[in-house]
């Protein structure tokens, strides 16, 4: 017997047995169950299993946080349970039976943007590093940047933009691919579709506003002309184009005979989509995206911007629990394309820090408890690096009051961030490293927000614990 046999058996028993498992898979740290009857799972007893660091339900899946050893534990569990290995996509399909319409829409949006996150994180780090060497005056008594004094750093600065441009300016390629992948259409044609939205022969989206009507190139068909405008960094036009292409291809496959399907289906799905993307979907998507970004930006910069910031900072962590936070990715990317930066992402990074700080306080409160530290220390580290789930579900929500303390700290930090006009160049880099994504002129005020997001949650968590504001099951009292 392995060391995972006993906890695997306990988890199987408390989750309702093999007959209650419709599908099961795992990700980097969690077991993901689709249960026949979620009410049969005894959450309290499951969370009492030593290897389990917390549980939560999201997107129709009952998720059990195990940690980095989840893959080995998963193999032992499926062998003991007698259930077959299930892919993440199959589990998601099964989970949708437990979702309402809004949850399904959020799940679809998450499926589109989740595969793009590694690229966005890399892009954010690259833009942040370019900020440090190119924008911050570090030398000659604060008058010159590294780029201005060194040819080497100037070369690095220029070279790194090759990657940054590929990620952010050509983002529609990734989005149309992700939509095609999600919908079950041809992924390579999704990539081709995305390229047609950002082709070098098109006028750059950022140059349209300053261009005269006669300066915009056109495709001239004699009876009609179509402006050759690109949609670099645009989110909504790419999503709309990807959806249209996928719907066309999937439905054409059903009616066109297999003998000619390979020739006819790609042509009849791709060509009309590209045409409609530049005539209808692109302009409409651009207007929708501009409207959304204008509304959000107006709300943040109005006289009541502090109230919007306070509300967003306070509720962002609960949004993560529901999965609704995935919507902010599209809004952030749209703000970046229109405003050359986003004020939302700094608040998200500060919320990450606040949750980690509440866990840090719990480490201090339960400093004599080794069992608690095994869960809380890794959770705090991952939270400060931008991954909040182990901290939120493994510690803060279990106790209750640390979660509230983190929400309050996040709220105050968000007000400071928005009140100071803090903007991020990119998204994807959360927690403490999030400062790398902040525009250099705003780094000092963001650092102030970081201090607030560390101090307030920590102090409030300690105060709440002394007030017996919540239950502290692991604390050993003298």
UniProtKB/TrEMBL annotation:
Limits of the PTS EIIC type-1 domain: 107-476
**A GO biological process held by the record:** phosphoenolpyruvate-dependent sugar phosphotransferase system
* Compartments, as annotated in UniProt: Cell membrane
Q: Which domain of life is it from?
A: Bacteria
User: What are the recorded GO MF terms, alphabetically?
Assistant: kinase activity; protein-N(PI)-phosphohistidine-sugar phosphotransferase activity; protein-phosphocysteine-trehalose phosphotransferase system transporter activity; trehalose transmembrane transporter activity
Membrane topology value: Multi-pass membrane protein
What are the GO cellular component annotations? plasma membrane
Q: Where are the transmembrane segments?
A: 106-129, 159-180, 187-209, 229-248, 260-284, 304-324, 344-365, 404-424, 444-464
Which residues act catalytically here?
27 (phosphocysteine intermediate)
Might you give the EC number(s) for this enzyme? 2.7.1.201
By its UniProt entry, which NCBIfam families does this protein fall under?
A: EIIB_glc, PRK11007.1, PTS-IIBC-Tre
Task: Enumerate the PANTHER family for this protein.
Answer: PHOSPHOTRANSFERASE SYSTEM TRANSPORT PROTEIN, PTS SYSTEM TREHALOSE-SPECIFIC EIIBC COMPONENT
Q: How is this protein named in the record?
A: PTS trehalose transporter subunit IIBC
Organism taxonomic ancestry: Bacteria, Bacillati, Bacillota, Bacilli, Bacillales
């Amino acid at each position: 017997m392995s060391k995972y046999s006993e906890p695997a058996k306990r988890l199987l028993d408390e989750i309702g047995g093999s007959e209650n498992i419709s599908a099961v898979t795992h990700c980097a740290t969690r077991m993901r169950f689709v249960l026949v009857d979620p009410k049969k799972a005894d959450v309290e007893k499951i969370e009492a299993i030593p290897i389990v660091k917390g549980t939560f339900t999201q997107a129709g899946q009952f998720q059990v946080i195990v940690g980095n050893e989840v893959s080995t534990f998963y193999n032992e569990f499926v062998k003991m349970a007698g259930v077959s290995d299930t892919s993440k996509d199959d589990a998601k399909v099964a989970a949708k039976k437990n979702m309402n319409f809004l949850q399904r829409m959020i799940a679809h949006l998450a499926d589109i943007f989740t595969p793009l996150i590694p690229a966005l994180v890399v892009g954010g780090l690259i833009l942040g590093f370019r900020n440090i060497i190119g924008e911050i005056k570090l030398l000659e008594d604060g008058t010159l940047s590294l780029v201005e004094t060194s040819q080497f750093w100037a070369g690095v600065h220029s070279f790194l933009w090759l990657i940054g441009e590929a990620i952010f300016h050509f983002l529609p390629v990734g989005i149309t691919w992700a939509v095609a992948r999600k919908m079950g259409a041809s992924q390579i044609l999704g990539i081709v579709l995305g390229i047609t939205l950002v082709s070098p022969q098109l006028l750059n989206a950022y140059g349209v506003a300053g261009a005269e009507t006669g300066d915009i190139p056109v495709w001239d068909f004699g009876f009609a002309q179509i402006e050759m405008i690109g949609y670099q960094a645009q989110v909504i036009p790419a999503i709309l184009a990807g959806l249209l292409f996928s719907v066309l291809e999937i439905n054409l496959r059903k009616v066109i005979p297999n003998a000619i399907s390979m020739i006819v289906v790609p042509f009849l799905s791709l060509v009309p989509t590209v045409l409609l993307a530049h005539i209808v979907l692109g302009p409409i998507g651009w207007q929708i995206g501009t409207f959304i970004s204008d509304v959000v930006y107006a709300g943040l910069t109005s006289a009541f911007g502090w109230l919007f910031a306070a509300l967003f900072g306070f509720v962002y962590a609960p949004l993560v629990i529901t999965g609704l936070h995935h919507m902010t990715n599209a809004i952030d990317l749209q703000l970046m394309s229109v405003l050359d930066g986003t004020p939302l992402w700094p608040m998200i990074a500060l919320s990450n820090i606040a949750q980690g700080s509440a866990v840090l306080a719990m480490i201090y409160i339960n400093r004599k408890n080794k069992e608690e530290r095994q869960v809380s220390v890794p959770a705090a580290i991952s939270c400060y690096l931008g991954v909040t789930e182990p901290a939120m579900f493994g510690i803060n929500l279990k106790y209750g009051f640390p979660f509230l303390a983190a929400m309050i700290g996040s709220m105050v930090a968000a007000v400071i961030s928005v009140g100071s006009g803090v903007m991020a160049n990119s998204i994807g880099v959360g927690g403490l490293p999030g400062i790398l994504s902040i525009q250099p002129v705003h780094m000092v005020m963001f650092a102030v927000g970081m201090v607030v997001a560390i101090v307030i949650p920590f102090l409030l968590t300690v105060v709440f614990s002394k007030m017996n504001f919540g239950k502290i099951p692991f604390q050993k009292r003298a």
